[in-house]
Task: structure prediction
Amino acid sequence: MPEKTFYIETFGCQMNVHDSEKVRGTLAQRGYRQVETVDEAGLVLYNTCSIRDKAEQKVFSRLANFKRQKAEGRIFGVLGCVAQHKGEDIFEQAPHVSLVCGSASYNELPALLDRVEAGEDRVTGLSLDTEDTFETPLTRRDNPYKAFITIIEGCDKHCAYCVVPFTRGPERSRTSESVLEEARRLAGQGFGEIQLLGQNVNSYRDPSEAGWDFAQLLTAVGRVPGIRRVRFTTSHPRDFTPQIIEAIDENLVLCDQVHLPVQSGSSRLLGRMAREYGREEYLDRIRLMKQARRNIAISTDIIVGFPGETEDDFQQTLSLLDEVEYDSIFSFKYSPRAGTTAEKFEDAIPEVEKSRRLAILQEKQRLIQLRRNAELIGREEEVLVEGRREKSQQWIGRTTQNRVLNFTNPAQDLSDLRGSYCRVRVTGSGPNSLVGELVAKENAPAFTGFRILQ
Ligand code: 5AD
Ligand code: SF4
Result:
């Protein structure tokens, strides 16, 4: 029997990154070995994103590159959001694809692979009719220090611009016991940081008798012995409760960081986007965070050039940046998506105007970050050391606020700091990161989890 090998490339959000970790575990259990190039692989998988047109096009350009390989007996599969969104059309656009599977069908993946391996062409898993989340007995995690845990999948919101409810299916939460069991196992394997994942973690609702809401689950995960840091993403402002802030205030393990996508600073536009909150309600949530005992870093997502966005709407988004003073933002030009409400909105904004607004927004935020990061000079921060930059002899760390803090060790000590938590003094700053010097280190915890490449 020839060895079974697979290659996987992942696009899109952290949910997709984590789905790929589970898919890799599923394949490892079936005797597949992961390889790092398409050339070495018998099975080639793309886990795709369709949030904006550009993301969606990426998979088609990849597939176009490899048309010839099908003849050489290679199997191609498209997973994730484009798979769900485009469905069987993918076979027409890329006839060398044999498997198309959306994220709501990953539990069927072993059965689908049986069929593909038996030589069947055009195998699909496209049903959105599910009450399950995707769980695997083996998850091949990428990062040895930080682990994702899915707590809720899917989305029941109907934001006018968003394709996600069509690609990830209805909201479904995991039981608190299964989440906690995974957290304990990860802590035992040496993962110090946990990131709780969901399209909207705030609507988490424990399906078991305990019936916990998100704040209760967050508190419980924060109490698992061995876990040093807990983050969560992503939040919807409408469901963001004061109890979440109270939980952060009470437990140092919960990181000083909240990502709260706003999308626009204009209530008029938020109404058109069907976001179910206005500027003032959003600012109420921000005020709660700013009044917390902890110094919570706040980040957001913003879309510019949504249909009908006037100069006045845009100015309100700019003024929101001044008012909130975000620690970081992710900003995007609106991209119409098939099947969404906004696809039919007629008052499209020209591309050049979207680009102009995006550039103005990003420059404004760059200046805010420059100023805010400079205020941190002289402070001492605890970082998780995640990597090393040989060229500049720097260690790469992340603070509880999720800021990148690159630092040197003035003691000329050669020991490997990766995976450890260190105290670092901030000595300099830029718009996107800080630099500093090591003050004190601790020993890295023993890592006993799975590395992805054997
Ligand atoms: N066009 C541009 N940006 C989008 N986002 C979601 N849908 C679209 C779209 N159609 C952005 C939102 C969301 C982030 C993940 O992507 O800001 O929060
Ligand atoms: Fe992309 Fe959204 Fe799917 Fe994540 S859920 S992969 S961001 S389309």
